[in-house]
Design goal:
Radius of gyration: 35 Å
Low-confidence stretches: 1-5
Number of strands: 6
Oligomer: single chain
Length: 482
């Protein structure tokens, strides 16, 4: 199996190397060749690129299978579109619109593949990806409205073709911006990712040149850009770093400052401002294209605002949790427990407070270290939770002191909980290769809402439970003394 895998890998590398060499040679010789030879050579490269990329598919990680499958589909359709456009006999047999339809579908698949990689690798940085896409869309809108749209209108292109090409250019620009953001946050300097960016950039360049200028030097340069994109894509597929291309990067979520606000405003205004300038200068403009491009930008801005709102809500929830919970054991701290206890007092509920203080806890820190002491506190909190019911609440007041709020409990239930706690803490705690034994002093206070005549505060009840605990500790010491 290892030999077979090595042979297959060798074939992939050789095929990829020959494909890259042919694509580079075609790009260099492209402007010098007669038109019929040029077209055939382009078609050969377009079909040949599919082979090394397809050979890498079995070795791709599961997270990359869908984007890579979309890429393969796009390469097949792109090769078919090139064949229909550049070989007249094939184009006539398939129909006059076959090349355009295949080309548009292939670009959609390419975009889907790029977006799939972006979403998998940048899953912790959606805000940054959207900001980069918005900036690229704004630049792409200027490129479209200032350069490409006037050229298409002067050549008499139909409205449907203009709208489709505008959508493709804007989507490709957004994807390009997202890939730039991935590279900006890539600490590993993944070479495959950079080669993919080069392929997308060259593909966008070739698309703009060929769509705007169907003949002449621009069309030749567009063909060269497409051939270079094929070479870059093959190099990306053959790079060992392709398996790590979808590994998520840990990026801190970006905040929402003045700069990001200006960016969103500029992106929203880019298309309308250009359209207004065209109207003032009495230049032809396309309202449909304006709606499409503005709609894409508005959709991304709304998604960005939604992400910011969710991020703010999560941050507020995390702050509330930190303010009311003990960071070590994750049970309530004194502040959070006091709020819960005050709420139960207002609702006139019956409950019992069980105050628990670990005995000789300092010896654990001295003998085994503070890490062992922290671990023991976490385990004690876990066992206290298990002693209570689903509606009961555990609190760490500080140090080695815990309080358990047992709801709807009277003296008998409080005594039962107390005994369960003592039994639970008598069982040794297994820390590494040693067993840590511990005991506790436990005091209880029962709150009977019906019999208590004067109001009482949460702090007073906690103090009463604390006093009961010290009484239990004193009685235990008296019993143990000679």
């Amino acid at each position: 199996m290892a030999v077979t895998g090595a042979v297959a890998d060798g074939w992939r590398r050789k095929t990829g190397a020959w494909t890259v060499a042919l694509a580079v040679a075609a790009a260099i010789a492209f402007p010098l060749l007669p038109l019929p030879v040029r077209q055939v050579w382009f078609v050969v490269v377009a079909w040949l690129v599919f082979v090394p990329v397809a050979m890498t598919y079995p070795a791709t990680p599961p997270a990359l299978r869908l984007p890579w499958g979309l890429l393969l589909g796009g390469l097949l359709l792109s090769a078919g579109a090139s064949t229909a456009r550049r070989i007249p006999e094939v184009g006539h047999s398939l129909g006059p619109l076959s090349g355009d339809l295949l080309g548009i579908t292939s670009e959609a698949l390419f975009l889907g593949a790029a977006v799939g990689i972006v979403l998998r690798r940048g899953r912790y940085d959606y805000g940054g990806l959207l900001d980069a896409s918005l900036a690229s869309l704004a630049i792409g809108g200027l490129l479209w409205n200032v350069i490409l749209l006037p050229q298409l209108q002067s050549s008499g292109a139909e409205l449907a073709a203009i709208v489709l090409q505008a959508a493709i250019v804007m989507l490709m620009a957004g994807t390009l911006g997202a890939l730039l953001r991935l590279i900006e946050t890539d600490d590993t300097h993944n070479r495959a990712l950079r080669r993919l960016l080069a392929a997308v950039t060259l593909n966008l360049t070739g698309f703009v040149l060929v769509a705007g200028w169907a003949t002449g030097p621009a069309d030749t340069l567009g063909g060269i850009a497409f051939l270079a994109a094929y070479a870059a894509l093959t190099l990306a597929a053959m790079d060992p770093g392709v398996a790590r291309m979808v590994r998520p990067t840990q990026v801190q979520p970006g905040g929402f400052g003045v700069g990001r606000l200006i960016l969103m405003g500029a992106a929203l205004l880019s298309a309308p401002v250009v359209a207004a300038i065209q109207i003032i200068e009495h230049r032809p403009s396309s309202g449909v294209v304006l709606v499409v491009t503005t709609g894409l930008i508005v959709a991304l801005v709304m998604v960005r605002i939604g992400l910011l709102a969710r991020q703010l809500s999560q941050s507020q929830a995390a702050l509330r949790h930190l303010a009311t919970h003990d960071p070590l054991t994750d049970v309530l701290n004194r502040r959070g427990f006091t709020e819960v206890l005050t709420g139960d007092l207002r609702r006139a509920r019956d409950f019992a407070l069980v105050f628990c203080d670990l005995n000789a806890f300092k010896l654990v820190n001295d003998r085994y270290g503070h890490a062992a002491g922290d671990w023991l506190l976490v385990e004690v909190a876990r066992r206290l939770r298990a002693c209570g019911g689903p509606d009961d609440v555990v609190c760490r007041l500080g140090g080695d002191e815990f309080v358990l709020l047992v709801r709807d409990a009277g003296p008998a239930q409080a005594a039962g909980i107390r005994q369960r706690i003592l039994d639970a803490l008598r069982t040794p705690f297994h820390y590494g290769q040693v067993d840590i034994g511990t005991s506790a002093s436990v005091g209880t206070v029962v709150h009977d809402a019906g019999r208590r005549r004067e109001p009482v505060s949460a702090e007073r009840l906690i103090d009463e439970a604390d006093a009961a605990m010290y009484a239990d500790k004193a009685s235990t010491m008296d019993v143990g003394s000679p």
